[in-house]
Amino acid sequence: MPITKGSLRSATVVALTLPVIAAGAWLLYGRPETTNRVVVPTVMLPPAEKAEATLFDDGDTSTTDAVIERLATGDIDFFGVMTTNGSDAELDDFETTVDQVPDVVQISIGWELDHFDPTLLGRITERGALPAIAWEPWDYRPDIWRQPKYSLRHILDGDFDDYIDEWANGLAATDQPVLLRFAHEANGDWYPWSETRNDNSPGEYVAVWRYVHDRFEQAGADNVIWVWAPNVNPFESWPMAGVYPGDDYVDLVGLVGYWGHFGETPTSVRTFDEVFGSSIDEIRTLTAKPIFISETAASDEGGFKAEWITEFFSAVASRRDVVGFIWFEVVKEDDWRVDSTPASLAAFLDGLELPAFTR
């Protein structure tokens, strides 16, 4: 049966997985600290001889239903990238490195500074990629969760209606499919939209999600594909059920999880199932929406990055319940880039040659 936006919204039961912290140190499932906007020198390189085909070149992408069906079939897995600023130079560099155009390009947008700009999406679609927006209701510059201006109650009280409508109307006017990953990792406690922080209360996150979603619907932004993105919850410290907005308000689930930033140097590597498996199971108790990994990367601490990448690709390619991933291509608290070592780059390139990723 074709998977459409309508049929996805009537589905039930899904599961995903994400990272974990203890005593201030990132463990085996550790994720990078909050914002992705760090200053990283970029080098302009000549465009590579890129593979011309992407996931969307030989299928209908004129509607959200068509894109969701393409993403969710499980027959072909997609791969995407998230760079520091999403600049042309960074994307050219990545495409040169992997000799392919990614299927999806994800960029971060913070409410405090970033207004709607249709050229952002145009630069991505011109590459043949599907744009994804990590839409974050906060001021990312201080990188702290205590931001009273962005308490969930202020969003519900209408303080940001003009900003929300600016983006809803702007995206609707593009009439192009776009993934919108709104207020990600809400089951954690490190962002202002966490219900355990910033004077927020239980139930407010779901209320905010539905409030924002409804304003987009009123603006006619039917081209927006809503991505709910919990963080992995391997130790059951960050339950997801209380922050799931419901199937009528979610199109895809975009789990977040990393391998790296450990309390001590690892002596072995964790498998995909050990990092993501229990979280996927948890998601499946909530919804049957298609799952992808909306943010991931690996550290080479201990020398296991290449091995982890190889196993990660194999797992995504073999699992029908995971339909793709977006790689966090950034130097931050670690060098998460695919080419941080020759071995890691070789592993990534080998992964892209698997039949599931072959266009």
Topology (elements, then pairings):
Blueprint: H1 5-9, E1 21-22, E2 25-26, H2 64-72, E3 78-83, H3 88-98, E4 104-110, H4 118-125, E5 130-136, H5 152-156, H6 161-174, E6 178-182, H7 204-218, E7 224-228, E8 252-256, H8 272-284, E9 291-296, H9 305-318, E10 322-329, H10 342-352
Parallel strand pairs: 3-4, 3-10, 4-5, 5-6, 6-7, 7-8, 8-9, 9-10
Antiparallel strand pairs: 1-2
Instruction: State the distance separating the first and last CA atoms.
Output: 23 Å
Order of helices and strands, N to C? HEEHEHEHEHHEHEEHEHEH
Alpha-carbon Rg, integer = 19 Å
Kindly state the number of beta strands.
10
Percent of residues in beta strands? Answer: 5-15%
Provide a count of the helices.
10
Query: What's the average pLDDT?
Result: 84
Q: How does the helix and strand content classify structurally? A: alpha/beta
Largest beta-sheet details: 8 strands, parallel, barrel
